[in-house]
Write a structure and sequence with these properties.
Elements (H helix, E strand, L loop, with lengths): L6 H13 L5 H27 L17 H8 L1 H5 L1 H26 L5 H13 L2 H12 L4 H8 L16 H26 L3 H9 L4 H12 L1 H16 L3 H6 L9 H10 L4 H25 L7
């Protein structure tokens, strides 16, 4: 039996091709991803918005509509917002983290011996599970632990303290763990941005006698400006939504409670699902507002 297409079959195929608009083809490819995005992102957000307007405790079958009562409670209870002061420690630490990541990415973007080894070492902490990191640093910060031992060997016995039990030191300790873990992620993003800059610019700068600092200031820094904007947004959103490390290491004790830990406790300890949903909506709104302000202050550059 010949495998060639008959004239009648070809005519039908041509007719179907003409009947199906070509501009619908991209939408067909996007249909499944958009459906998954809506199912796992926008539908849960819509559900959260709905429950934030109810008094549901997570156990009853039905929830009573209470309007904006949960939001009024959030904005009239100062203790719910005071925990945002803890986020300032993480926000400040994120700038240290960004500075370290940018420094190492700049140095390792040039020809350096064992560059790949150093890249792997810097990125490795980000690959480790957050729970494991929490337990590792529990031993690191415990009394007579690794940190106290190192300080004693260096003659700094007077600096030892309850690193996780002292309210004056606990947030600095936890923010330091955050820097250790997330510097690798920032490093990789900076390194990719720096390596995307055409090499001809460096060659032209070297011919003009530019040193490394001048290359960084006039070539690298303008070239990674969009990534810097992204880092700022990630820093703000990360500082506001810190959860994993303080929850594992202190459970929010000794003045280390963050807004997310407070939201989780509201939901699971006090069974107030409606109020916890409203707190999550407020956090989402703050992150979106900061992102909008950042975009207005530092607009994205468009290629002409």
């Amino acid at each position: 039996m010949p495998l060639t297409q008959t004239p009648r079959a070809g005519w039908r195929g041509s007719r179907i091709a003409h009947a199906f608009p070509r501009n619908l083809t991209p939408w067909l490819f996007l249909l499944v991803p958009l459906a998954l995005l809506a199912l796992f992102t926008y539908v849960p957000v819509g559900t959260m918005l709905y429950y934030s307007l109810t008094d549901w405790d997570g156990l009853r079958r039905n929830a009573d509509f209470v309007g904006l009562e949960n939001y009024v409670e959030i904005f009239t209870r100062p203790e719910l917002f005071e925990v945002f002061l803890v986020s300032l420690y993480y926000f400040g630490a994120s700038f240290v983290q960004i500075a370290l990541a940018l420094y190492f990415a700049t140095v390792l973007s040039f020809k350096v011996r064992f560059a790949n080894l150093f890249k792997g070492i810097l990125f490795f902490p980000y690959l480790v599970n957050g729970v494991a990191i929490g337990f590792v640093f529990l031993y690191f910060f415990r009394p007579d632990g690794v940190l106290d031992t190192v300080l004693a060997l260096l003659g700094g016995e007077g600096l030892t303290r309850q690193w996780l039990g002292d309210p004056a030191a606990v947030n600095y300790s936890l923010a330091g763990v955050s820097v250790w873990r997330y510097t690798g992620l920032n490093f990789v993003l900076f390194l990719g941005a720096i390596q995307s800059i055409p090499g001809e610019r460096y060659e032209a700068a070297e011919l003009d006698g530019a040193n490394r600092w001048q290359q960084f200031r006039y070539i690298i820094l303008p070239g990674i400006r969009p990534v810097l904007g992204l880092m700022f947004i990630l820093a703000v959103s990360g500082a506001l939504s810190v959860f994993e490390i303080p929850y594992i290491m202190t459970g929010g004790a000794n003045g280390s409670e963050t807004f997310v830990i407070q939201t989780i406790n509201t939901r699971f300890k006090f069974n107030d699902f409606g109020l916890a949903s409203a707190m999550a909506v407020v956090l989402l709104g703050i992150v979106l507002l900061v992102t909008w302000v950042q975009r207005r202050l530092v607009p994205e550059e468009r290629e002409s």
